[in-house]
Amino acid sequence: MAEKVLKIGLPKGSLQESTLKIFKKAGFNISVGSRSYIPTIDDPELSGLLVRAQEMARYVQDGYLDVGLTGRDWVLEQGARVKEICELNYAKGGLRPVRWVVAVPENSKIKKIEDLEGKRIATELVNYTKKFLRERGITATVEFSWGATEVKVPLLADAIVELTETGSTLRAHKLRIVDTILESRTVLIANRDAWKDPWKKDKIQRIALLLQGALNAEDKVGLKMNVEKKNLQSIVEVLPAMKSPTISQHTDENWVSLEVIVDEKTVRDLIPELVKRGATGIVEYPLNKVIP
């Protein structure tokens, strides 16, 4: 058992699978039993606990956890006094941010935010929604929804404020988005007292660096190739590199080896073009971490 241990909260629920995947790419193997809330982490300096993202900020604020991952939306909803370490650009379905939107039935007369005056709104994001409306001088009844918020309109509410990534679920329920009130990403947050502890601060910063490196590598691949010097300029012109490609002298003085990181989605068009311009021995390989 390590002498010093950092208590880390991992989000249970919709963010759990994507969070464990990112941690694995960052170098941490985490396993969770089907009925367990205490994960096993292959780092003796980490003690983990699975907590719903909606509750994470409060437990970090109160010191039950030193650090945790949750959505910025839930930090704002709870008004939690925590230290935000960094933004981690991922959600349950991918790398795009999530949005809290006002949605109404397709045939509703509500067309803009101001039309919510005097209306009834169902949402899980009660405090932030009230604050959002109050700042715009709109008076409405905002009620907590325990789930299945999409079915509350029009019988139980005039509108809902619901979380969405693509809007497909709302469209499937024949709902129309009126406006976005909040865009949110996953954030790494720390207890303020824990952040003042030199050992804990260093450990948190190390974790943040590795997580950001793992996310930087998402949807990217490395390419290696051999290029005859006379074709080098032509090859470099078509490389959408993060930075200038790494070029090293080949054993043959007329050739160089070139290495570059590119977006994975560009590879299917890029490789044929590279071959056309004279690249040979092309190797594509996956990435775990990219540290700028």
What's the helical proportion of residues?
25-40%
* Topology-level CATH name of the largest domain: D-Maltodextrin-Binding Protein, domain 2
The CATH homologous superfamily of the largest domain is called Periplasmic binding protein-like II
Radius of gyration: 24 Å
Low-confidence stretches: none
DSSP helix count?
9
Q: What fraction of residues sit in β-strands?
A: 25-35%
> What is the C-level CATH assignment of the largest domain?
Alpha Beta
Give a topology summary.
Blueprint: E1 6-12, H1 16-26, E2 30-31, E3 40-41, E4 46-52, H2 53-61, E5 67-71, H3 72-78, E6 83-88, E7 98-105, E8 120-123, H4 126-135, E9 141-144, E10 159-164, H5 168-172, E11 175-184, E12 186-190, H6 192-196, H7 198-217, E13 220-228, H8 232-237, E14 246-249, E15 255-263, H9 267-276, E16 280-286
Parallel strand pairs: 1-4, 1-5, 8-9, 8-10
Antiparallel strand pairs: 2-3, 5-12, 6-12, 7-10, 7-11, 13-15, 13-16, 14-15
Helix pairs in contact: 1-7
Describe this structure in words.
- The chain is α/β, with parallel strands linked by helices.
- The chain is 28% helix and 33% strand.
- The chain has a 5-stranded mixed sheet with strand order 4-1-5-12-6, with helices on both faces. It has a 5-stranded mixed sheet with strand order 9-8-10-7-11.
- Helix 1 packs across helix 7.
- The two termini are 33 Å apart.
Q: Concise description?
A:
The chain is α/β, with parallel strands linked by helices and 292 residues long.
